[in-house]
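Long-time lurker, first post. I've been practising inverse folding by hand and with some scripts of my own, and I keep getting stuck on stretches where the structure tokens seem ambiguous. Below is the full token string for one chain I'm working on. Before anyone asks, I'm not after the true native sequence, just a reasonable design that respects the backbone. If someone could post their per-position residues I'd love to compare against what I wrote down in my notebook.
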């Protein structure tokens, strides 16, 4: 195998597929990146058997073939090479990288790299990459990190209905929901027998790959797999089996108290209060809702803080406590500065959203305290 390519092109391709290389694995072959030639194209692939990322770059193919390169070492050395055309030759599991008047030798990984095995998938929809990335960022942080009894909570629920795509995550303490109608529907989810739940890890890695422009991607779904095709990059992932919680029964509208407040002021106030609450396992902060102000209180063995933020209150005054981290994670992804927070009482979840945009909603469970 022998080829020439741009150092910049192959370095970017390696960085992309390396996201699917497992951090630790009992199978040494998975620590590698599979590289093969196809006509005048160099194809790269990495997998942890749950997520597979493939991409390709233009190259001058002198002698076709394939090789499995050690991911970390090969990627690190290529990244540090000068921005020039490099020549790579593979002979007897030995990789020679030539650049200018210098060269590097690296041992290849022997063995058979696993194939990407997926059943037939149905092309469901097109979606703008930047919009899908924003939807992921607004929800994925609310997925459960580990829930062995409810594995579906470690994923992101996708629902296509009436030309809207809804993305939902919840972990038992909070729920994040975002809806978008910026899709070109090809088919609908009636072709899918079960709920579509994508692992949160998959969505996190996908968000790092998706572009920030208006380019489209295709989403295809099978019984056990989902494929995101960005053109030059293709990510394939398993789906999580199970039935997702009926989120429509959780999000309701019988709220009795509404607080209107500036997002930035609230975030900065919580950030100050967290200095005192971060030693508490619940990052506990207390909200006191007054007629024209929100008092945020936090206590620790070292002191306490009582921070005041202006707001408009519609309904009765009340006191309620929350995990400050849960609040701040949601505030970071809300784009509008004017927000509203709806309450029923001090023991039930509150609902936070933009004042003039209801496409995104975030629900958080309060923390019960003893006075």
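-- Answer (accepted) --
I ran through it position by position. Result:
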């Amino acid at each position: 195998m022998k080829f020439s390519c741009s150092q910049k092109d192959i370095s970017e391709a390696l960085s992309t597929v390396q996201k699917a290389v497992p951090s630790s694995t009992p199978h040494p072959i998975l620590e590698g990146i599979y590289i093969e030639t196809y006509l005048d194209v160099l194809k790269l692939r990495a997998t942890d058997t749950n997520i597979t990322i493939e991409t390709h770059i233009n190259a001058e193919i002198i002698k076709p073939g394939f090789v499995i390169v050690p991911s970390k070492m090969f990627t690190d050395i290529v990244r540090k090479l000068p921005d020039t055309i490099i020549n790579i030759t593979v002979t007897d599991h030995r990789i020679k990288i030539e650049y200018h008047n210098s060269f590097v030798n690296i041992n290849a990984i022997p063995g058979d790299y696993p194939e990407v095995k997926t059943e037939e998938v149905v092309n469901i929809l097109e979606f703008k990459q930047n919009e899908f990335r924003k939807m992921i960022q607004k929800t994925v942080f609310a997925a459960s990190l580990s829930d062995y009894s409810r594995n579906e909570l470690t994923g992101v629920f996708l629902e296509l209905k009436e030309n809207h795509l809804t993305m939902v995550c919840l972990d038992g303490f909070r729920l994040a929901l975002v809806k978008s109608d910026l899709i070109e529907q090809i088919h609908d989810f009636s072709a899918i027998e079960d709920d579509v739940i994508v692992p949160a890890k998959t969505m996190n890695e996908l968000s790092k790959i998706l572009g920030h422009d208006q380019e489209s991607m295709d989403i295809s779904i099978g019984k056990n797999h989902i494929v995101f095709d960005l053109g030059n990059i293709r990510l394939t992932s398993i789906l999580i089996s199970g039935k997702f919680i009926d989120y429509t029964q959780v999000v309701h509208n019988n709220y009795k108290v509404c607080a209107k407040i500036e997002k930035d002021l609230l975030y900065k106030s919580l950030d100050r209060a967290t200095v005192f609450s971060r030693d508490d396992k619940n990052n506990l902060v207390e909200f006191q809702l007054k007629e024209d102000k929100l008092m945020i209180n936090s206590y620790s063995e070292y002191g306490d803080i009582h921070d005041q933020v202006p707001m408009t209150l519609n309904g009765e005054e009340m006191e309620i406590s929350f995990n400050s981290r849960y609040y701040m994670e949601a505030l970071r992804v809300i784009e509008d500065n004017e927000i509203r927070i709806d309450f029923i009482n001090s023991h039930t979840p509150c609902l936070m959203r933009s004042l003039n945009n209801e496409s995104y909603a975030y629900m958080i469970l309060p923390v019960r305290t003893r006075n």
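A couple of notes from the structure itself: The radius of gyration is 25 Å. Residues 296 and 338 are 18 Å apart (CA to CA). Happy to go over any region you disagree with.
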